[in-house]
Structure formats: structure tokens, C-alpha cells
Structures
1.
Amino acid sequence: MSEPRVLLLGAPGAGKGTQSKRLAEEFGIEHVTTGDALRSNKDMDIGHMDTEYDTPRAYMEAGDLVPDAVVNEIVKTALQSADGYVLDGYPRNLDQAEYLSEITDLDAVVFLDVSQGELVDRLTGRRVCDDCGANYHVEFNPPETEGVCDDCGGELIQRDDDTEDTVRDRLEVYEENTEPVVDHYREAGVLVEVDGEGTPDEVFEAISDVVDDAAN
Ligand code: ADP
Ligand code: ADP
Ligand code: ZN
């Protein structure tokens, strides 16, 4: 069959970015992530879309969702040029899920299950490469040299929204808006739940098995 189309769901910090990157390499598919796309375009003018704020930045710094019209457009454009893909960070509410169902079909929907306390530890210790976007954790996945990216030598930084306060807000936004999306796919009988608390290698094995099954 054609390349697999995979949706990876999970709370902020569940490991979606880490696993999506590996899946994209392993299966030769695109990594489509609204979070990275928005971070590269934080100051784009969205005023014409009739939004409360004029740029994504204000929403992101508060831990709120960027308006649907903005992210729907990003996803539509990205999926048009992708054969197979792993979608990470979208849909985050039921309206986005509805929109997604109108523009594509999915071969696998995977939910990474991680407990609340672990999520907070992962997010507050996360560091990302300012140059290539690689993900680290000060304790769980440290770079060889503190503050320096193993892959490209770039500087590791903490995201503005990975501070304790904003993390709490983001987890609330997740509960309120995105848990219903997880329930929606569960009720449709298509959700495969994976324990997200193993090592990154263990989690990767489990997701790869699901994608292999879906592709055969
Ligand atoms: P998400 O994209 O879902 O927000 P990330 O992939 O960015 O999550 O992971 C959040 C943080 O947790 C990062 O610092 C990452 O290095 C770390 N992490 C990812 N997977 C694991 C894991 N299986 N065990 C421990 N830490 C992990
Ligand atoms: P995490 O890795 O912690 O899950 P992301 O990088 O996916 O976080 O998202 C960071 C921020 O970007 C979110 O808090 C939100 O403001 C915005 N964002 C990302 N994806 C979406 C989306 N699908 N809908 C609305 N806002 C989004
Ligand atoms: Zn790097």
C-alpha cells in the first residue's frame, strides 16, 4: 500500500515530538507538526482571520490554543504535499478533528499514555536545539555536553512555554479541549493506546508495531 498516515496523540510532554521524528525516519514519511510550524512563524500576521490577537505568539506564550483557522490551514498545506505522514500536535479540539476527517484518511491513531506528574517533570526539564530542533531532557535524555546539541553543535534552550506555570495552563487546556478528541477516536474504535512511560526505545518499538500492522 502507499505510505502510512499516522496520527500520534498525547498530552504535552508525552513524547510525540521525540517519537514522531524517529517514525518519520524509520518509515520514510513526513513529520507534520503544528507546534514547530507555529514556532517558526510566531509573528506571522493572522489579523485578517478575525482572531483576537494579531499573531500566534500571544496565544502560545499563554499556553492557549492558536485559532483553528490558522492551524487548519497549516495542516491542509502540509498534508497536500505528503504521501505518508506522522501528524503531531493536531487535532487539539473536536472542531480540528472534524476538519481533519474532511481532508484526509488515517491508517493508524496512536495515543501515548503518560501520567500527569511525569508530564510536568518532562516538560520543565525539556531542552531543545535552537538550530535543528532536536529534543533533550536535563535528566532523562541529557546531551553529551551540557547545553550543546549532539547532532549539530547548536545551543540548547528552554522553550518560553516550558516554565512551571505555563505547563500547568497547557495541561488544563489539554484536559478541556484535547481529551475529548482522544475519547472521540476511542469511541470510534480506532484508537490504539501505548504505554508512554517506558524508555524512548521501548515506546518506539510499541508504536512501530502498530504502524507495521496498519500498513499490512
Ligand atoms: P511532546 O512533543 O509530546 O510535547 P517531547 O517529545 O518533546 O513531547 O518530550 C518531552 C520531554 O520528555 C523531552 O524533554 C524529551 O526528551 C523527554 N522524553 C521523551 N520521551 C521520553 C521517555 N520515553 N522517557 C523519558 N523522557 C522522555
Ligand atoms: P507540546 O510539544 O508541549 O505538545 P506543541 O509544540 O505541540 O506543544 O505546541 C506548542 C503551542 O503551539 C501550544 O501550546 C499552542 O499554543 C500551539 N499549538 C500547537 N498545535 C496547535 C493546534 N493544533 N491548535 C492550536 N494551537 C496549537
Ligand atoms: Zn541541533
2.
Amino acid sequence: MAEESRDYAAKRSFKQTPEPPPEVAGDVDPGTAPPGKTFVIHQHHARRLHFDLRLEMFNGGTPVLVSWAVPKNLPIEKGVKALAVHVEDHPFEYRGFSGSIPAGNYGAGEVRIFDSGRYELTEQAKGKLTFRLRGSRLKGVWHLIQTRGGKDWLALLSDWQGEPPEPVPTGPPMVPGATSEAFDDPEWAFEPRLEGQRALAVCGYRSTELLSETSQEVEVSLMHTMHERLVALSAVVDGVISGSRGEERFVAVDLLYLDGRSVGAEPYYRRRELLEEAVVPGGIMGTVTSVPRTGKAVLQAAQDLGLPGVVAKKLDSIYRPGPSEDWLEIRG
Ligand code: MN
């Protein structure tokens, strides 16, 4: 059966998936193949979320991506062992792949690039690799050790070489400092105002904590997995918990902190770009619609949906906790 094959091409129909076809057949031995220079880690929202670590190595003269599926991603703390399942080599072209594998195909779901960059193999033996990653998120040295000679390997952090994180902002969230009539202006963006509980999602590498407007912890079922919908080492997302119990969703409206750095001093339009890159929409998490310029049309659309109004946000404004006139409330 194709599903049990280790062969990249046998698992896929290249007429149906946007993934690239292979250039060479078969898999190399990671213990002996000549190493290349680049790596990528895909964040793959398949039936189960997992991460795919891919190291460039050579199959004859052709670069390929030697790959491990790492359910919990590479550890960023010492002493943590992460399972890494050695899977089929992927074509080198796959390192730039990001997008959606259509339903019904092998690995169907959203694929994002969690990290990429240069790597250096500092130890290469049968069943054991030590490598340094110089990614934009992951910076450090890891070991990969094969267990019992099979497809299961263990990943361990040897040395973290990234900058220490900045303190995590904990609120209160920014709120409109005044009300206004509906207006159109190219220097502003307009979002429907959502009904629900405003909260900050403080997302770590492997956990999420929700804080209310008064920085009290909020206990909401399902929401503790929100970090899984983010492409990030860490993040603080401002949003609204909407919907009824059991069908709750978190709709993101802003981003305060990303990968250990505060982004509150970035202008709103830049924070919005970072937010859209970070959130993988689906399941319990979405992002509010944000439309530049046309406040009157957004108010009309919000009213058609039965929403209570619109929030106008000045495109070049920084994120300031509490009331600010850079955000305006527009009621119908
Ligand atoms: Mn995968």
C-alpha cells in the first residue's frame, strides 16, 4: 500500500498536491550522506499537528532534504527529549513549500515554515547527528540520536544560543478612547467589533495562558491549545473569546509580543502583518477582518451581521495599554 511506503513519490499524486515532485529516488543514510548547508522546519497541521525537521544532504550529486517528523518540535530546554520519526527524504525544492495540501491527499492540511536558515553538522555518525541551527527562531546546537536502530530518533537540546526573551506584557489591553461617527480615511483601518470576552492569550512554546482585561487568569476549555495555531516561539495575542461554551473561538485582534520580543512599538499595520503571518486560522482560532480606508462600508457590513459596531485603528499607531484616541469606537 502506498501509505506504508517510505517513498516520497509513491505517497503523493502530483496532479493533486501543490508539493514538488522528487528529483531523485530513494533515501540517503543521514549517518554518511554528505551534508549541505540549509535546513527548514515545517509546521504541519495534518490530522495531528507535528513539525518536520529537514536537513539538506546529498543523494549522489543532488541535494535532498533528510526529514524527521517531530510531534512536539525540537526542544528549547535542556533535559527535554523529543521523539523524532525519520521519514522519507523530501526534494530540495520542498524547503520553500508553504500552503495547503488538499483534503484527501497524503498529509492533508496547512503547512507553514516554522523556521529556516543555515545549519552546520558538527558530528555525523551512524545513528547520531549533532548540528547547529542558525534559524530566525531556533538558534543553538541539538543532538539527534537513533533508538534501537529503527525509525525512531530522539532530539535533545545541547546548547541554546538565542537571545534571552524580553518580559512578557500582561495588559491591560488597548481600548478605544473616544467614539466617532462612521468615516472613510486612508490612514485608518476598520474592524467589526466582536461580542465576547476580551482577553490576552499568553502563548509559550508548549502552553497557553489566558488573561482577562484585569490581568486575571481566565479558564476556558480548549483555549489552552491556542499556541498550536501560532507559528511562533512565543506570542501575546490580543483577542476576543466569542461563541458559546463548547464552541468557543478566540478571534485575534492584535499582537503585542512575538518570539520573545515586544512588538507593541511597531505601527498597527506592521503588527497586523505579523499577526497574519503568525496565526494559522482554523479550529479554535481566527483573526478579525481588518479593512483599510472604508469605515462606512465596514459599519454597514457589521450591522448586516448583527454586530455591535466597528473599531477604527490608526494605521501608524503603537499599542498602548488602556484607552487611546488612536482607536475609536463607531456605533451604528
Ligand atoms: Mn509532515
3.
Amino acid sequence: MNCTNCLIEKKFDVNTMNKNASLMVVGNGYLGVRAAFEENYPEQTRGLYVAGIYNKAPGDASTEIVNLPDVCGMKIEIDGQAFNLFNGQTHSYRRELNLFTGECTRSIEWENEQGKRFSFVFSRFASKVTNHLIASKVTITCMNETAELTIHTGIDGQETNHGKQHTAEKDVRITDGDIMQGLYQTIESGHEIGMATRCTATSGDQDFYAGNRQLMARYKGTLTPGITYSVEKLSAVHTTLESEQPLVDSVAMIQSLAGVSYQTLRDQSAEKWQTVWASKAITLTSENPFDQLAIHFATYHLEIMTPFHDRRMSVAAKGLTGEGYKGHVFWDTELFIAPFHLYTDADNMKRLLTYRYMHLQGAFNKAKRNGYEGALFPWESAFTGEEETPEFAAINIKTGKRQPVASAAAEHHIVADIAFATVQYYLASQDHDFMKKEGLTLLKETSRFWISRTTERNGQLVINNVIGPDEYTEYIDNNAYTNYLAYYNVQQTLHYMEKYGDTDQELIKRGNDFLEKLYLPKPNDEQIIPQDDQFLSRPCIDLSKYKQSQGSQGILLDYSRHEVNEMQILKQADLVMLFYLMPNLFSEAVVKKNLCFYEQRTIHDSSLSKAIHAIVANRCGDKEAAYRFFQEACMIDLGGNPHSSDAGIHAASLGSLWLATIFGFAGISIAGEQLAIHPDLPAAWQAVRFPLQWHREQLVITLSHDKIVVSKTSATPMTIIIAGEACELVNLIEKKIPRGQV
Ligand code: BGC
């Protein structure tokens, strides 16, 4: 039986150790704990991250998410020798992240070099009930001979971000006789982090000691055959982001949990997870159970990557699973991750838009610095809302030169992406209060930016020197995606200004002028829409080698970034992204032609590419390609590449699996201001069922190849468009679809 709600690791393999540490993270949006093994291995990257805790290391231009002191590591000594799977013999091994309960468990049967055999069970979870709580447990059973056991565990402040130490230790001690406590402060940003932890062992002696940036407890006991020894550990984390006295709060939390067992807390947390799954799970009937696992995996991570608790934070490109992209926030949030929230609990998307609203000042500053008006949102942002994109990327190992990152200077489409998401939020939620105030402000300020961003060329307005979504094409003019999105941005602003009686005449006049004169690239004689002014005149090369190693950015080892820029090579969906967002802009024939043309030139080196191609291919009726793209997108984190996710999961890619299922195969869209359903399921799927929030009503949609069923509990009628036909939904609609019509 394939388990579709568990991620399973069947063998111990150091090669996949860091990848699985990202995949199997336990978290709750406040914090994330990498699934590093309790025992140490060289090159293992541990990680505990709290949303919003960033710091800038001396000499660095941008901040990064801080790897906080660790509370999950354990040194286990048996008869004086450290337990480690490199030694002795492993008779059985299984690690499992239960996506439905949020608990990660590892069971091992192991024999040491002296022939003594033990069974270990390690478990942990981050509480879904109490954001600040991490619970872990180890049980050890000796299976044949008696052995002496020592366990060292505590708060380990030796953790760094790959060598960069971001915290100073301020106050470390034992309180109440057995609570280890530590107060740390980020060196530049000044956040305080208070941590407290207490262990409860079944028997034996306990003492404490302090090491270099470590506060440790030591448990000693005798393992007797058949008798299980266990240590339960409860740890709390608070920071000055939400607490005036983070250390006091953490200690108080641990004190209040005296006598409460791991199991009780785990059951409470698992129960909370059940409510999440009841309102957010997509249930598939597929020939390939892996599809269901991939969607559950995506849903789990979408849930644990989102800081529901605080609108000053947003979702990082790796969630809270690793240090990739320094924990920064990109357009990934608004276009790839937020839709999941919009259609499952719209308030959560409002939180993410509020993050942008609260950081308008950073966007004003950036616009002003660059000579523009309005809001130019940073390409990468963190806690302050200022631009955080590093100036340089990794070293090119052939030239030894650092590659400059141009995104901060030119990847301006993020401005329109945020505006697009704002409109989508309103259409699906009908949240007038938000739209009238925060939404309209976002729209107006982003429009002001676009209006000031254009220059005149032969009586038309053009947008020069940008980077579109395809980051392998830098500093080009009139990127089609950017121009169409900017047009939509301004058009929608004028629409909502009128709706809410905003009479800012100057903006209305300038907005109309912009709409009248903005150059919008059209299909040429061959029906190809130029990605930008320069693209079609550039040479093509054979990309098969790079397409095979997609995701690796291997092309940058053979060519400099500049050379790549000068060729017809796409990193990711660009026009195809435009087709996805605006399905009615061009005829199906034009979309089909361009999908084929541009896909041939796309390496899919970005994880944001594949699932978007799946959606557009499905709409074009190329079901086989669509399903293939979808399955390949599932493999970005879950596939065989042992290092693909070492630095964290691909948050936008996981969001896009949800998009591909709902907006692609299930065919959900917004038609005018109404919900439309026009499914076209892959041949391998018999049915798909999902909850969907629309206009604050909770719908349940069940689709098969020949039937669409939509239900809701409230009796308020609503019109939805099913396979092109307007239908009135009160509580239930069931529609048979004759084969060939969907
Ligand atoms: C992609 C961007 C994306 C970023 C963070 C880059 O590789 O090209 O589109 O926003 O990764 O996920």
C-alpha cells in the first residue's frame, strides 16, 4: 500500500540527508525545524528558523534569516561510544513525516560493534496549537544485553548560517532546577530570542553543564533488555517580535507544561492539523498515488511556510525550511503561494497583502532612489521592506568572478504582480473594506510607478531596461509579460477608483494616457509574440543538454550570464506565465503556437516554470504534455536528485502544484466576477475533490471525467459558470458532462 499522507525515508543515506532535512521539516508558520538527525554527522545542516528573525552579518549587503540555537540535537552514548549510523550495523530503518499530524518519526534497529542490539524511536513535532512549542522524544530499548546510556541534549548556540554567527549569547542558565534557558540577541537587527527547554527522562541521573555557547543536560541510565528508556523534551521559543519578555514567556510556557506528556501535546496538535486538512485537502483518485502524495506534501508545506500570526511577515522562497535565498520574500508569494490561501481561507491572503501594504514605505524609498514615482516594491524583501537582493550571486568557478544580480535594478514586474494579486483577492473574497483602503492604495501607488516608468518612442509609451520573469534575459525593452501586467495594473486601478468614487483627477488623466499609449507586443506574421524587443533577433543554440539537467543552472557553467542573455534561452515561463494569468488575451491558436515556440527555448532552470506550463498546456488541449509537466513539477522536491532541496523546499513550486490542480486540471477561473469551472482532468485521474472558498462561502467541488458536483451548506443562491453555462447554486448542483465536452 502506498501511503499518500506520509513522506517516507526507507534508508539512512548521508547523500540525501540535507535534502530530507528540508522536506521533512516540522513547523507551524511561526517557526520551522529542519529534520536534521538527532545525532551529528559531518555536513549535516541543522536549522531552527523563526519567521521575521533576520540579521545582517558584518560586510553583507542584505539580511538573512537567522539559524537559531538548536534544541533537537542529541549525543547518545552507549557504553561510552557515540551512537552514529556510520558505526555498527543498521538492521532496519524508517523515517516518516506524517503530513496529516505534523509529526516526524524515525525508527531504527541497530547493533553496535560489540553485538548489543537496540531499538530507537525518535519523534518530534512543532505544535500547531501553541506556535512557540517544539516537542521531541527519544525511546531506546535494549534488545539483548544490558548497556550504559548517556544522553546529552540542551540548547546549542553553536549553530550558524554556514559559518556566519548572527546571535550573541546574553543570558544562559538553569532555572527551577531543571529548565535550561537561553537569551540570545541578533547582532545587527537587535531582536531578542528567549528559549527554554526541559527534558523528562524515565529514570537515571541528570546533571547540567555549560560549554562554549551550549547549555546541556546529561542523562545517565542503564539499559536493561526489554525495558524502554525515554527522554521527552519540550522547548519554547519567543522573540521580541511578539513578546516584551521573550525569555520569561518561554520559561513560563515550559513551567506551565510540567507533567504534560509528549503524547498529549502531540494529540492536541494532530487534532488541530485535522481541521486544516478538513478545510484544505485536495483528494485525488489517480492511477498514480504519487500525485496525491505530491499534492498533500505541497499542502502541508503551504501551511507550515505561512506566518499566519503576524502581518509584518510574508512567505520566504524556501519557507522556514532552509537558508536558500536568505529567507527572502519574492513575487513567489503573491502569484504562486497566495492563491492557495485565497481559495481556502481568504483572510490568510489578506495577511500577505497587508505585508506589502505595511511595507509601502520601502517601496516608496526604492522608487524615489531610482527616480520614479509611487511604489517600486523590492525584488527581494525581508522584515524591513527595503530592497534585500544581494548585489552578487555565486562565483562563476571558471572565471572566478562573482555574477552580478540584476533583479533589484530591473525585475520590476513584481510591482504589477502585487497589483494583480490584489485584484484577485478582491474578486474572490469581495472584501470591500480592504479593497477600498489598502487595496486601492496598493493599486494607485503601483500605477504611479508604472506611469513614471515609461518613456516615449514614436508617440507610444515603452518600458525599457527590464527583466521579465525569465531571468536569463536581462535588461531588455518591452517585455511582453511586464507591459501587459503593467497595463492591467493601471486599468484595474482606474476601475476601482471609479467604483469607490476616488476622484484623483491627475492620476485618472495620466492613467488613461498610459492605457492609450502603452505599447503592447502583438503576434507577428508567424503568430509569435516577441518576448521583448530584442529576443527574436538573437541566435538559438541546442539546449537539449541543459534541458536534461533542468533546475541545475548548468548552462551558467558553460556560458557567462552575459552570453546567455544574448541567446534565445529562457530560464522559466515568461510569456507562458502571461498566458496563465490572462487566459483570454490571445486566441487559443496563438497561445498554442507560442507555448510550443517558447517551451523549446526554455530550460526550466527555475522551479516556478513546470507547473505553469502544465496549466497552459492543459488549456490548449495538450493533456499529455500537461500531465507530464505536472509530474515533473512534483519531482522538483520529491524527485531523485539528492541535493535539489538541500537549502530548503521550493515554496513557489509547491504552490504551483496546487495551482496546476485547481486552475489547470480542475479548470477553476474567474469569469467576469463569477466563479467558473471547466475541468479537464488527466487521463490518469478518475476524480478530484476539494474545498473552495468563494465570496466567503465554503464550497465543495467534486469532479470526474463526466460529472461536476458543487455543494455548499448555506442557502444563499450564487451563480457559477459550469462548462460555459451559467448555473444557479443553492446547496447542490450536479451536472453530467457528455464525453468530449470538457
Ligand atoms: C526565479 C525567480 C524566483 C526566485 C525565488 C529564481 O530562480 O528565477 O522567478 O522568484 O528564484 O524562488
4.
Amino acid sequence: MADVVLEDVNKEYSNGFKAVTDLNLRINEGEFLVMVGPSGCGKSTTLRMIAGLEDITSGTLKIGNRVVNTLAPKDRDIAMVFQNYALYPHMNVFDNIAFSLKLAQRPRAEIKERVLDAARILELESQLNKRPAQLSGGQRQRVAMGRAIVRRPRVFLLDEPLSNLDAKLRVQMRAEITELQREVGVTTFYVTHDQVEAMTMADRVAVISEGILQQVDIPMKLFNEPDNIFVAAFIGSPSMNLMEAVVRRKDSGLWMELGSQTLAVPESVPNRRPALERYLGSTVAVGLRPKDFEDAAIASDHPLDQRLRVNISLIEALGYEAIAYFEVDAKPVISREALELTEEHLTGEEQSSTRVHARFHPTTSVRPNDTIEVAVSMENAHFFDLQTGRAIRD
Ligand code: ATP
């Protein structure tokens, strides 16, 4: 095992395209670190640089305190699992898992012991005589994992290993890979575009956009304290509602003016984020997660000055919750990257209202076209500077 350290790493492809810029990242020994970001943001490039499959243009890569920038992939003591986990179709499961050990000419007894050990961890013991074609997608994925762990590498590198599996299997394999990583305890770098995968599997998540690292932290910290608008919009499902608001002072407290309506900001918020006071009279981006809304008929004791009056356009009853959609007449804030993600392109004139999605308790009796009051937990609101996109804190 070893930690992996990237210091000021840059990657420029031969056509001049800059895929990774000034990347500083430490994957701690034994840690499961997931790098997540939209397609083309430089995740695979980062992984391939760690693997040695791609040159580093500038900067330093260390594995276990040793600079490995120019070390050949085979000498880096890493094991990789890719999206297309090509198994040898003519070999059975045992031989597929054993392949690298045979190549390394390990003694027969050791090979057998290591393969059986991997098969036990992966629950493949009863499949060892089967060929890949006789296995399910999930089992094939486990054989690919077996080929990686049997080598007992210092570092695992996984590039979108679940993207070829159907949704149900992906959820199952998510848990299996997480358990496996905990069991073998190998430093792991895992790359995906799926933020749910990242949030559920990782010890820490590194969010990257256009080759630039945005934030690295434990999943709950990313969710609760996103550093900027990109992370705020990218992490969370359904995603955060982001719209423009003017910061006002009324009596002693702060208020947010969202279009034609106002919401009081509880005193604890500027106490935690003193910088908010500096934005008095200015427009900021306010972020509200779907969970921070409730049908006021249900949250009847919610403060009266933290409510919006809205007309419900759609309600989706899911049994365990109901997702309500409504418009607020404040301008939406959509980061450029988030816009690409949602594939919603703003055309023609600017939008002057924001379509909000809110999670209500399933017992709500709200119907489409009802005009109702919605309770908003302003205690949990996020605030961002519109120029820099950065969170307004201290
Ligand atoms: P995806 O999930 O779609 O694979 P990614 O985040 O893994 O995306 P990379 O594969 O790292 O993205 O690519 C980052 C950017 O670098 C992309 O814009 C890609 O087009 C570009 N790129 C990748 N390989 C090369 C290359 N050999 N030459 C030039 N540009 C490249």
C-alpha cells in the first residue's frame, strides 16, 4: 500500500489541448478516493497519468514517496480495471484471474492460493470453471476485479468500471466494490461521471471541471458546504435550486429578495457567514436544496417570514416523498458546466423565472394548479458570489 501524490500536475496533449491544469491531490494510503466530473473534464487523463499510460507535461507524481513520473507502468505496482474489462473468452474464470501471476511465473501453489483467496472475497468460488460467456455482467465485473486484486498491488485504478452494467446491477456492484476495497484496504483511485456513485462509494470525493480541481472532501461536506456554484449544482440529486437574490436589511435582520417575494434569513446564518453582510444591496446566487422546502400545510409551525407563495405546476408522488415543481420569479443561476450537464440551453432572451423542484412529505394533498405556501428552511440556504462563483462564507 502507498499514498499517491500529485503536485502541480499539468497535462497538455500534443495538439495543444490542456486537459489538466495545476492539479494538487493526495490519495492517502488505504483511501478510496473518487474523482467525479462531467464528460471530458480530465478524469481519465488523470488516471492514465497515475498509471503511466500518459506522460505528465509538468509536475510531480509520487507513489509511496517515490517520484514515478518516468517509471514504466509495469513497474508502478498498480492494477487497473476499465470500463471494458476485456476478459480472455477462451479461458475459464480461474485462468483469467491467474493470468498475471502466471505471466510473472509465480509458483503453482502460490497462484492457486491467491486465486482462491480472491475468488472467496469476490464470491466467485463456484464459478471458477466457467468461461466468461457463461457469466452474468456482474460476475464478469467481479472477475475483472479479481484479476486486479490477485496481484496485491499498492494502488488500484478504476475507470468507470460500472458503466457497462444496467442500473440495478450498478447499485449492487457499487456496494460490492466498496466492501471489497475496505476488505483489501488498497489505496484506490476511482473515476466516474456519476455523482451518486462518487457520493456513495468514496471516502473522499474530488470534483473536477474542465481540467481544474474544484473541491476535495468527504461526501457530506461537499453536499453541505460546496465551495462554488459548480460543486453546488453538480453534487446532489435532485440538484440544488440556484437563483438570483438581492441581499437586504430590514430592521435588524437580513432578507433575501427573490423576484417579487422576500425570505428572512435567520440570525445564525450571517453569524456563520459574516461575509454575507458585505453583499447588502447586491445580487447573489442563493442555493436551496429540494429537501429544504416543505408544503407549509405540513410544516405548519415554520416561521411566517420564511415562506413563498407559489403555484404548483406538477407534483410527482413517489410514495416515500412527493416532488413538487413551481416557478419563482427570480432569475436562475446556471453554471456553464451545469448547463451542459442538464442539456438545457438558454435560448433567446434571458429567463426571468426559476423552475424550482422541492421535496414534500408524501402526505401532502397539494395538486397541480394549487396556489400554496411553501416553507423554506433558510437556515440551510447556500450563498455564492455571482462574479467569482465562490461560496460566501467568512
Ligand atoms: P470521459 O468521462 O468522457 O472519458 P474524461 O473526464 O475522462 O471524460 P478525458 O478522457 O480525461 O476526459 O479527456 C479530457 C479532455 O482531453 C477531453 O476534452 C478530450 O477530448 C481531450 N483528450 C483526451 N485524449 C486526448 C488526446 N490524445 N489528444 C488530444 N486531446 C485529448
